[in-house]
Amino acid sequence: MIYVLLSVACSVLVSVLLKLARRFEVDVGQAIAWNYVAAGALTALLLQPSLDTLRAPGAPWLALVALGVLLPTIFLALAASVRHAGIVRSDAAQRLSLLLSLLAAFVLFGERLTAFKALGIALGLLALLGMVWRSGQASAERGAAGWLYPLAVFVGFGVIDILFKRVAQAGVPLGASLQAMFALALLVAFALQLWRRARGQTRFTARNALAGLLLGLANFGNILFYLRGHRALPQHPALVFASMNLGVVALGAVVGLLLFRERLSRLNLAGVALALLAIGVIASG
């Protein structure tokens, strides 16, 4: 379980770094671009994936290219969500994106819908509604960003997970798919930053590069320790899955409330509690 705990810590650390970016005058777009330099290099160094499957005629390049575009753009949405809605809602929305993956499993991949999973989906949708709901005063203070960005995170990470399943169905090992996606995401992310630079909206600095490399270390650590957790407990995938998702929501809530004094209404807190329950029910199913 130590690997799962480390994965949880790295996942929440990503949100903390995004939250601290403005305080330390870090350009989030640049940091996200440099993050893929670190993540791609660490994937090549530590996972040492074989890329032969990517040269095969049936390689799912359409899904891989879609992931290469979505990863940096949804990362930007996550950063905006953390800034406008806070770590608690953003981490919970990211983890609840598994609801879309489950729905796709039933509709696209032929999985059988069980009563437990149906209950988990219903609870998850209620949880999402409770988390993004804002009072009139809160809406006036934050505007639509307070609920639009968490919804974008929810939908975006759900679509990413569905594309991951498509790539896995094509027989591409995870290491090779990660290497391809990180390389494509790096190109997309730096293209966006070069476009911003040409418009005079940003300039490249060592501070942003260092922040991005640290972000990439946490991002890759999340993936690496999650994989190690599954390898250490091969007979208990549901335990790893539930521990990871519940751990991120719980630790994210503690960090957001205690470290950043994030204000949540009773309905928002009930939504977070329902998110924990929904993930537990889905894992049990």
TrEMBL record:
Q: Where in the cell is it found?
A: Membrane
Instruction: Please give the GO cellular component terms listed in this UniProt entry.
Output: membrane
Its record classes its membrane topology as: Multi-pass membrane protein
Task: Output the lineage of the source organism.
Answer: Bacteria, Pseudomonadati, Pseudomonadota, Gammaproteobacteria, Lysobacterales
Q: What is this protein called?
A: EamA domain-containing protein
**What UniProt keywords apply to this chain's record, in alphabetical order?**
Membrane, Transmembrane, Transmembrane helix
| Record has Acetylation as a keyword | no
Write down the InterPro entries for this protein, in alphabetical order.
AA-Vitamin_Transporters, EamA_dom, EmrE-like
Q: Name one Pfam family in it.
A: EamA
Query: Which residue ranges does UniProt annotate as crossing the membrane?
Result: 59-80, 92-109, 115-133, 145-164, 176-195, 207-227, 239-260, 267-284
